Amino acid sequence: MAGKKVKDHPKDEMVQDDRLQAIVLTDSFQTRFMPLSYDKPRCLLPLANVPLLEYTLEFLAKAPVKEVYLVCSAHASLISEYIEASKWNLPWSPFKVFTIMSPEARSVGDAMRDLDNKGVITGDFVLMSGDAVTNLDFDKFWDFHKKVHAKDKDHIVTTCLSKATQFHRTRAFQPACFILDKSDNRCLYYQEIPLPSSKLKTSVEIDPDLLEGVDEFVLRNDLIDCRIDICSPLVPAIFQENFDYQMLRSDFVKGVLSSDLLRKHVYAYITEEYAARVESWQSYDSISQDFIGRWCYPLVLDSNLMPDQTYSYESSHIYKEQGVVLAQSCKIGKCTAIGSRTKVGESALVENCVIGRNCYIGSGAIIRDSHIWDNTIIGNNSVINHSIIASDTKLGTNVVLNDGCIIGFNVVIEDGKELPRGVRINGTPVKNLEDNGFGLSEDEQPEEAPKNTDLEIAFEFCGSKGRGYLYEDPLSEDELDSPIGEEMISGLSHRLDEVYLSDNSISSVTKSKKKRTMSTNSVYTDREDDPTEYEDEEDFGIEGVATVKRAIENNHDLDTALLELNTLRMSLNVSYHDVRTVTVIALLDRVYHFIATQTLGPKDATNKVFARWGPMFRREAFDPEEYIDLMDVLMEQVVLQDLEKRDLILFSAFNTLYDSDILEEEIIYSWWAHVSKDPKFDDVKKVVAKWVEWLQEADEESSDEEEEEEESEDENDNEVGSEDDR
Amino acid sequence: MSLPSSAHSSIVTINSSDINVTIEHFIARLKRHQIDGPYAMALETLQLLKRFISQARWSHVSELIEKIRQLANRLEKAQPTAFACGNVIRRILAVVRDEEEEELRSNSPQAASSSVAEPMISSMFNLLQKPEDNQQKQQQQQKQQKQRSTKTRTDFRQVAIQGIKDLIDEITNIDDGIQQIAIDLIHDHEILLTPTPESKTVLKFLLKTRERSNRRFTVLVTEGFPNNTAKAHEFAKKLAQHNIETIVIPDSAVFALMTRVGKVIIGTKAVFINGGSITSTSGVSAVCECAHEFKTPVFAVAGLYKFSPLYPFDVEKFVEFGGSQKVLPQMDPEHRLDTLNSITDYVPPENIDIYITNVGGFAPSFIYRIAWDNYKQVDVQLEM
């Protein structure tokens, strides 16, 4: 399939310039569309009854692109099957489509390196993801690129940014700040800013050298980055050289811009046309509404871009295909699309919805703001609010789906069930992310793979005769304890964004869920309004972990590491508890690193790391209470980080600390006496329990035998303990 | 002339061997709205049709007609709010049907006499009285014709292609015909208002008048917010370059200025048989309504190829809607307000005083006669 059967094109005048190639990354390398992306690749999920990939290809069809390469990793066979059967494979397709399998790619960087190895790219190419929805005028973009290219020889990438209004819904997903040269839109610097909901302090740090020779620059965060770039053939080579580049923006663009060696330039083409990416369920929802609202004109549903579609448009944005059967008393509200052979029963209400083909909406059903894919049956008097229901699903009568439910393929839900907000159910159990070929997310860390606890049918939601498995986002588990409460589960989208955030930094616990504050002009104002104490903590969490990690990686001596940590502690004014937490996190991370790379077993790794770095705790804890706290923290973090063999790790950590005299027996006993009874700690406590028992026994024995020699007691114990251990 | 020919060549380069590929490619471009304006669309359609007919095979002319109808149906469906494709193909169909009739008449004089006589009788009676008769006759005719077809058959391919060539000629020279009339219509020191700045016909109409008659007149151009503002400015600039006094006015000022306006000139995208028309700027309808109120004459300029034999029963189906963010860009994500942004506009016949076409000026109530001169009633509905 790796198509290098490049046909020669009989267009003599176009040869040097217009034989443009396009690379479409069909995989997002993310898990944000779980559980539906478990069964189908994200780019084939329908948006407004059209597979997402079609929007990208339609955009490219208007461009002078002659060859399109789809880079597939997850579900690659499904994508290539789809393409083979589609109109893009017919002789009148404006370009040739090739699918490139690169199943081992785990990030954009990997995909680019793979492309470079395959030698596919011959000239300038369009690089975009397979989930963009846009009505961008490619010709203008292309002209801009050519103009800039003629002027600036170091220019390697032109990126397309769409200007968004303040309230634009699609801009909130990946806020980033671009610093542009005002005169020619050269991109000087790029920085991602944390989501507003994360409450992190935002600051943009620019190296003054970058601004040298720039008269005037603008700093913008009002731009939607739709990830449509025109790249010169140098780009894959740069990825090749810098094998650590993973992400297109945060690694590559930032790296290129701040590198002294490369001296390459990135330009931004700013347009006011519609351009957005379907990145999360929230953006899925809003882009679908925009599309139905004809924002993407002339790319509209009633153009019937799929060969078998027969949509016609009626006022107030109602689209109906031929063969829709509507009962006389049903009400079809604004902004609705209904596929053919769908039946809507008596006095049903459908508003702001997209409904696929062959669906049956029972009488009296009320459906609002929802997306219902093909072949779905919705029983009488069901109420569906702001949910997504995938194909071949059957809902009984009187089912209520509250805001933000996502129902996967082939789910059956019995009569009369009510699903709370934000429940996600899939027809097939989503087992382990690594088994299913979708474990290709760069964000996902294997330690966060879900435990197989949810594999039984979710009777609670589907009923005894129903079919469906509850999907818990593996990343959200650690957050359930945090005081997020119900605000967290505020619809299909918000929730997911929160979740996404949480996996960037392990320690960041989202404290509260606030809607985006509406400030576009200043990057700072967002957060200055509500100076909460969390900010510092959050900041410290990330910074502290980074500091300790750095120390470990570069093998600093203890003093330097502690000095840095202390400086950070004082500048942010946080407690020693936090310092201990970050140290523990960093150390555990290191342990995990050893295990993951299989250099050491869990026990040896823990021993090694804690023996070397454990002494840090001496300068972070000063009285018994604080040591007890340290043990609590350690246990908590071991559980939170969901490591493999965490009981063993916890035990080894305690033992090592005990061996190196950081934890004293008394402390361990009193900790054990007051240890949290929370059931989630139960399994990690098992090994520790034995250890404590053993300690106590050894203690008694030694005190029996050597009553007089109390001073040397500890040491003896240590020796005995460590001998037994090894 | 140069524009469509270059566009056409681009189709050919895609794949010149297979006509089906060319058709599908053309349909795809129609769906993507890649063909700009009815003028280019009409010419490209004719080029396509020419190739289609020259490659088509048929044993009887009715087969050819059926094939052309199918093609027209597909093109019309590809972009239902573009009428030029359907119009020009229906014109060619009419040419072929005329020729067929002609042949019948020459072959069987007795049948011919009746078929000539029939259209003269008032149609109502006809409808009620003799449908079976008519059908039988036609069947007979066809039988007769089939018997003879091997011997005497006019070259329909030649006829159709000649028809296409004539039509291309007509379309490319359309502006000349219109301009001839223009000179008599515009007076010295008159104030004109045009709400359709993207119409090339209107532009040429004005420029020619200025050139030929050397009359001084003022043109008010409405801004056409939000879709056409840039075009309006460009249009005004072109007029100003030709020493025509031009003023761009906001759309809201039309009512205030209408008292001073001598004539309103609008361009059209399609003209229906009731005399109403679709214009390619939203807001034209309001301007015409206003002109009607003030009894200011409204002149609509239209080439003959824009006449459509359809009747606008459901105006909504014919008007095109664009992206609503242009009207109301700022949107609170939680409380969405969807607005409608119509790109084209329907002007009812009572608000138009006269159509200026390349074959002369007509009242809207007379448009149906012109249409039936060029189209056949049987071809109005292309769907099977």
TrEMBL record, chain A:
Q: Which Gene3D superfamilies match?
A: 1.25.40.180, Hexapeptide repeat proteins, Spore Coat Polysaccharide Biosynthesis Protein SpsA, Chain A
Residue ranges of the region described as Disordered: 697-726
Q: Which InterPro entries match?
A: ARM-type_fold, eIF-2B_epsilon_N, eIF2B_epsilon, LbH_EIF2B3/5, NTP_transferase_dom, Nucleotide-diphossugar_trans, W2_domain, W2_eIF2B_epsilon
**What keywords tag this UniProt record?**
Cytoplasm, Initiation factor, Protein biosynthesis
GO MF annotation: an example: translation initiation factor activity
Q: Which CDD domains match?
A: eIF-2B_epsilon_N (cd04197), W2_eIF2B_epsilon (cd11558)
Q: Which residues form the W2 domain?
A: 534-705
Q: Where in the cell is it found?
A: Cytoplasm, Cytosol
Q: Which GO terms describe its cellular component?
A: cytosol; eukaryotic translation initiation factor 2B complex
Subunit-structure text? Component of the translation initiation factor 2B (eIF2B) complex which is a heterodecamer of two sets of five different subunits: alpha, beta, gamma, delta and epsilon. Subunits alpha, beta and delta comprise a regulatory subcomplex and subunits epsilon and gamma comprise a catalytic subcomplex. Within the complex, the hexameric regulatory complex resides at the center, with the two heterodimeric catalytic subcomplexes bound on opposite sides.
Q: Which family does it belong to?
A: Belongs to the eIF-2B gamma/epsilon subunits family.
Protein name per its UniProtKB record: Translation initiation factor eIF2B subunit epsilon
Species per Swiss-Prot/TrEMBL record: Zygosaccharomyces mellis
TrEMBL record, chain B:
SUPFAM superfamilies, per database record: NagB/RpiA/CoA transferase-like (SSF100950)
Its main subcellular localisation, reduced to a broad class, is: cytoplasm
Give the signal sequence positions: none
Cellular-component GO terms for this entry: cytosol; eukaryotic translation initiation factor 2B complex
Is the keyword Zinc assigned to this protein? Answer: no
Entry keywords, A to Z: Cytoplasm, Initiation factor, Protein biosynthesis
User: Which superkingdom is the protein from?
Assistant: Eukaryota
| Record's keyword annotation contains Cytoplasm | yes
Q: Which Gene3D superfamilies match?
A: translation initiation factor eif-2b, domain 1 (1.20.120.420), Translation initiation factor eif-2b, domain 2 (3.40.50.10470)
Q: Where is this region: Disordered?
A: 132-154
Q: Where in the cell is it found?
A: Cytoplasm, Cytosol
GO MF, one annotated term: guanyl-nucleotide exchange factor activity
Protein family according to the UniProt entry: Belongs to the eIF-2B alpha/beta/delta subunits family.
Q: Tell me how this protein assembles.
A: Component of the translation initiation factor 2B (eIF2B) complex which is a heterodecamer of two sets of five different subunits: alpha, beta, gamma, delta and epsilon. Subunits alpha, beta and delta comprise a regulatory subcomplex and subunits epsilon and gamma comprise a catalytic subcomplex. Within the complex, the hexameric regulatory complex resides at the center, with the two heterodimeric catalytic subcomplexes bound on opposite sides.
The family database entries (PANTHER family) matched by this protein are listed as: TRANSLATION INITIATION FACTOR EIF-2B SUBUNIT BETA
Q: What is this protein called?
A: Translation initiation factor eIF2B subunit beta
Q: Can you name the source organism?
A: Zygosaccharomyces mellis
Encoding gene, per UniProt annotation: GCD7
